[in-house]
Amino acid sequence: MSGKCGTLAVGQKFMANESSQTSNIIGAAEAGTLPGLFLERIRRTPQSIAYRDYDRAQEIWRDHTWQAMGARAACFQAALRPLDLAPGERVAILSPNGINWVACDMAAQGLGLVVVPLYAHDSAANSAYILGHTGAKLALIDTAERWQELSAHASQFPALQDVWLGEGAVPPSGSTAHPRIGMMDAVVPRQGGAFDVAAAEPKAAATIIYTSGTTGRPKGVVLSHFALLWNAEAVTRLVPPRENDLFLSVLPLAHAFERTIGYYLPIMGGSMVVYARSVQELRADLLSVRPTALLAVPRLFERIHATVLSRAEKSRLRNRLLDLTVSLGWRRFKFRQGRGPALGMMEAIAWRVLDRLVAAQVRAAFGGRLRVAVSGGATLPQNVARFLIGLGIPVVEGYGLSEAAPVVSTNSVEDNLPGSVGRALPGVDVKLAANGELLVRSPAVMSGYWKDELATVNTFDKDGWLKTGDVAEFKDGRVFIRGRLKEIIVLSTGENVNPVMLETGLEKDTLIRQAMVVGDDRPFVAAVLVLDEENWKALAAANGMDPSLPNAEPARAMIEARVNQRLSDMPRYAQVRAVHATLDPWTVDRGHLTPTLKIKRRVVQGEFAAAIEALYARRTPHL
Predict the structure, then answer these.
(1) In this predicted structure, what is the pLDDT of residue 621?
(2) Are 16 and 89 in contact (CB under 8 A)?
(3) 131-146: b (≥16 Cβ within 10 Å) or e
(4) Rounded to an integer, what distance in angstroms lies between the CA atom of residue 399 and that of residue 394?
(5) CATH 3.30.300.30: which residues of the chain?
(6) What is the CA radius of gyration of the chain?
(7) What is the pLDDT of residues 481-512, one digit of tens each?
(8) Is the dihedral of CA 430, 433, 437, 440 positive or negative?
């Protein structure tokens, strides 16, 4: 396959054939390797639209055919060959999602190189560690500013020989000869010849994906072409992609969930992927792109849930209509799942009216034609899932981890039980250890951790089962995740408390934006809360309080009473007895969260150490 680099079909219409289903899925065996999958997709549907992205300079969306993408990947290979990198050497990509990410990934893997994805919003120090740990020889970086931040840590990655800066980037001033700095516009030629996949081997490493590192340095998960292809194909049996699907890509491609399910799986099915412009513009992108498939972390669904509730609360009638719509919609969903009776005649008439007046407006905010929205990366609160499903938004939840490439289990639209993470994928075995830890055995399990033999050995039990670190429960063939084994809080009274359950419960409250509970070796559970600034200001004003002083009395007492009400169903020993509130959100940039938005407990506890100590000094409740 050959052609000019970057040939585009600007504004080409996406033709949706409603009768097209899943007959054109490319299996793992036929693909052989990830670039083999890409090449086979080009062969089958060369003129179909593969990707759409936004050109900010021209302020238009651009469509790219599979054939054009193959030509672009071939041009990247032409730029890679003179570097004389041996198969197995590492190439890093530090860039937002887009067609250059895809082209570089496929080009490098086709030449037998291993791709190391880096989070565009991660800290420079963390990215520098990964570059050094993998010994990456080349890094594709989107901007000169990002490279300048990284270059301050250059002593940590001495193996890096070349840096390619993204299209339109301004060359940095004062560049040194090592590493060599090249502008992608100049380095990547316009003619690339044939796209080559000969050097790729199915069982060879395709990528090293670094885990979040909530308790220490991130570990590099080594995944083969076979593992990623096997996992993607197994998912197609429960959540099959269609040729007329349009995926909106929101999560970073450095995330294993997006990499397998939002990138490789659409290639298997011949689906189109649209790259969202930014998180800030996501609402507008949903309206203009109108996706049929969406992958997201729970936080996105939680924010939409909170927004809808907040708007409804301004009117008693609107709030009542929303509640009734969700209730009828949920019962209708249960009937369709075979778990409840059908709506009565009057209820069915009421649903048709409320669906048009209420539910359709919420669905329209997602573009109005979603056939599946997959939540992954963390636990989706049941009340959020029930709310959205009741309004006709087909949300399903799955479970996985990078070490399993990543999907272990998932619900499907036809077999969906919110609160569970579905059934294990076909070919994946799961069981529980004596301590309740979920163990996994799958053809897609990682080869090991990069340069960390001890951690690799410790992650598998003596029979070769992958230890997930998650506590789970099985019911009727479904998997339910109950928390992290290492995050269990042991009170000084000897009681065990699952912090994730408490934090999830607290974050259901529209007043609470983020929550972290503490209590290890303490007599009771306390919490640090990030309040939603807008809602807190309104509540404080309504009660005659200074909104800048959420920890002053009686503001603290009011917040604690609200917390107690929210967690009233929890056992007494698991109740939160003291609270410290802040209006300053925890972010990735400031080191509070991992790139996958998990709380770095040690960091947050360290920052609020004095406040936490004060909580325990202030009161020792009667337990």
Answers:
(1) 40
(2) no
(3) bbbbebbbbbbbbbeb
(4) 17
(5) 489-618
(6) 25
(7) 987 777 778 787 667 788 888 998 899 898 99
(8) negative
How would you label 51-86 residue by residue, b for 16+ Cβ within 10 Å and e otherwise?
bbbbeeeeeebbbbbbbbbbbbbbbbbbbbeebebe
CA–CA separation, 551 and 265 (whole Å): 48
| CATH entry 3.40.50.300 includes domain 489-618 | no
Structure tokens at 16: 């949706």
Contact 20, 243 (CB under 8 A): yes
For residue 483, the model assigns a pLDDT of 77
For residue 398, list its beta bridge partners: 410
Q: Are strands 162-165 and 180-183 parallel, antiparallel or unpaired?
A: parallel
Cα angle 251, 304, 277 (rounded to 5 degrees) comes to 40
Q: Please, are residues 356 and 284 in contact by the beta-carbon 8 Å criterion?
A: no
Q: What distance in Å separates the CA atoms of residue 153 and residue 156, rounded to the nearest whole number?
A: 6
How does pLDDT run across 350-367, given as a tens digit for each residue? 999 999 999 999 999 999
From residue 517, how far is each of 297, 469, 524 by CA, in Å? 21, 19, 10
Do 503 and 517 touch, CB atoms closer than 8 A?
yes
Contact 207, 223 (CB under 8 A): yes
pLDDT of residue 173: 64
CATH topology of domain 28-200+239-294: Rossmann fold (3.40.50)
C-alpha 291 chain-centroid distance: 17
Residues 95 and 145: their CA atoms lie apart, in Å, by 12
What percent of the residues of the chain are helix, what percent strand, and what percent coil, each to the nearest 5? Answer: 35, 20, 40
Cα three-residue angle 583-588-589, rounded to 5 degrees: 90
Q: How many helices (H) and strands (E) does the chain have?
A: 22, 26
Structural contact between residues 360 and 353, judged by C-beta atoms closer than 8 angstroms: no
- Reply yes or no on whether the pLDDT at 7 is more than 80: no
Question: pLDDT, tens digit, for every residue of 78-104?
Answer: 999 999 999 999 999 999 999 999 999
pLDDT digits (tens, 9 = 90+) for 111-160: 999 999 999 888 888 899 999 999 999 999 999 999 999 999 999 999 99
Q: Label residue 296 left, alpha or beta by phi (over 0 means left) and psi (-120 to 50 means alpha).
A: beta
Residue type, 515: A
Range(s) of the chain covered by CATH 3.40.50.12780: 28-200+239-294
Structure tokens at 444: 């897609």
Q: For residue 319, give both structure tokens.
A: 């709030």
530-547 residue pLDDT tens: 999 999 999 999 999 999
Dihedral sign of CA atoms 321, 324, 328, 333 in order = positive
pLDDT value of residue 169: 67
Q: How many residues does the chain have?
A: 623
Strand order in the sheet with 429-432: 429-432, 437-441, 466-475, 478-484
Longest CA pairwise span in the chain (Å):
77
Query: Which phi-psi region, left, alpha or beta, contains residue 377 (left: φ > 0; alpha: ψ -120 to 50)?
Result: left
Phi, psi angles (nearest 5°) of residue 523: -80, -15
Token pair for 321: 């209509």
Q: Would you state the pLDDT for residue 490?
A: 74
Hunting for tokens 């931040």 — which residue is that?
149
pLDDT tens by residue, 433-443: 998 999 999 99
